Amino acid sequence: MLYVVIGYLWAAILLYLLLGGADFGAGIIEFFTSEANQSRTQKTLYRAIGPIWEANHMWLIITVVILFVGFPAIYATMSVYLHIPLTIMLLGIIARGTAFAFRHYDAVVDDMQGLYNRIFVYSSFITPLFLGIIAGSSVSSHIDPMATTFLDAYVYSWLDWFSVSVGLFTVTICGYLAAIYLIGETASHGERQRFMRKARFMNLAAVGCGALVFVAAYAEGIPLFNWVFGNWIGLTAISAATLSLVLMWYLLVKGKRYIVRVLAGFQITMILLVTTIHHFPNIVLLKNGGYLSLLEHRGHDKTIESLGTALLLGSVFILPALFYLIYSFQKKAHAPLKQNF
């Protein structure tokens, strides 16, 4: 049952990156949209993220619950030593959701709309930035349980070049996913070309930030190159992601708008696999060679068994409801408008 729980933890992180990441990426895309095109972009964003913009956070909640219940030592360490980036990320989620709701449902159109827009796009950038910083910090070996000063314990545990570069990479990945997903939501050729240009820009930005991650890792003595290319799983995953990227752009040129979403999701899945498989089951790497392991630092066996059972039963209810939610909203969004005479 332990591996069932671990599987759900990995899947929840992946789904939050794929769905929540594309959600955040919608705001990033809007940030890089000219004022003349903002209205059209916002309408496309509402249609695309409306069905799941709140449901996305379910995956983050599941991740937190699994860590809190099943791996309390890991949860405690991360929530204590990374409480600053965690707090900023959570504030970003709250601010973004609030701004999205107010600017969409506020009946009075005034100067506040501009404020809502700024909060939405800035928090859409800040939230994945600190999500990536948290991910980078967990494997950077900068968390020091023996630290004796505030800065060493709670600031330098995450404020380093490697973690920040992972944060920037996460931002570009979110923007890339959103641009690819939004191509399928466009109704005209011109709009499709516009989002394809944004996808190319975000793709190049992701490659650049990915290179920055490797440079920062080398500078700080983190063996990232060995993690990625030092085993056959990593080499296979990177090769598959690269080939799927080439295939994706070929299909986009051919006008295939929906299959490319699957390919983009596949690429992100391969990236997450590569970055986690090498040091599994160690999920947090501490300073001076310490670590926190999903196998060694788990909760009581009875707790793990109950948690695994709850996750399996919950999937029976949650997943069909989520799929139906997406289906019903997409069907409504693409239904022809009825005219009353």
What does this structure look like?
- It comes from Spirosoma endophyticum.
- Keywords: Cell membrane, Membrane, Transmembrane, Transmembrane helix.
- This is Cytochrome bd-I ubiquinol oxidase subunit 2 apoprotein.
- One of its GO terms (biological process) is aerobic electron transport chain.
- It is found in: Cell membrane.
- The structure is a single chain.
- Helix content is 75%, strand content 2%.
- With 341 residues, the protein is an all-alpha fold.
- It has one domain.
- The chain has a two-stranded antiparallel ribbon with strand order 1-2.
- The longest helix is centred in the C-terminal third of the chain and has 33 residues, at 301-333.
- It starts with a helix and ends in an 8-residue tail after the last helix.
- The model is unreliable at 337-341 (pLDDT under 50).
SSE map:
Blueprint: H1 2-31, H2 38-49, H3 57-70, H4 72-81, H5 83-105, H6 112-139, H7 150-154, H8 161-183, H9 189-219, H10 224-229, H11 232-253, H12 259-277, E1 282-285, E2 291-293, H13 301-333
Antiparallel strand pairs: 1-2
Helix pairs in contact: 1-2, 1-3, 1-6, 1-8, 1-13, 3-4, 5-6, 6-8, 8-9, 8-12, 11-12
Summarize the structure.
Its main location: membrane. The protein is mainly alpha-helical and 341 residues long. The chain is built from 13 helices and two strands; from the N terminus they run H-H-H-H-H-H-H-H-H-H-H-H-E-E-H.
Helix content: over 70%
- List the domain count as a whole number: 1
Q: Secondary-structure element order, as H and E?
A: HHHHHHHHHHHHEEH
How many strand segments?
Answer: 2
**Overall pLDDT score:** 86
| Low-pLDDT ranges | 337-341
Tell me the distance between the termini.
61 Å
Our estimate of the beta-strand percent is: under 5%
Shape: globular
Family: Belongs to the cytochrome ubiquinol oxidase subunit 2 family.
Protein name: Cytochrome bd-I ubiquinol oxidase subunit 2 apoprotein
GO molecular function, one term: electron transfer activity
Keywords: Cell membrane, Membrane, Transmembrane, Transmembrane helix
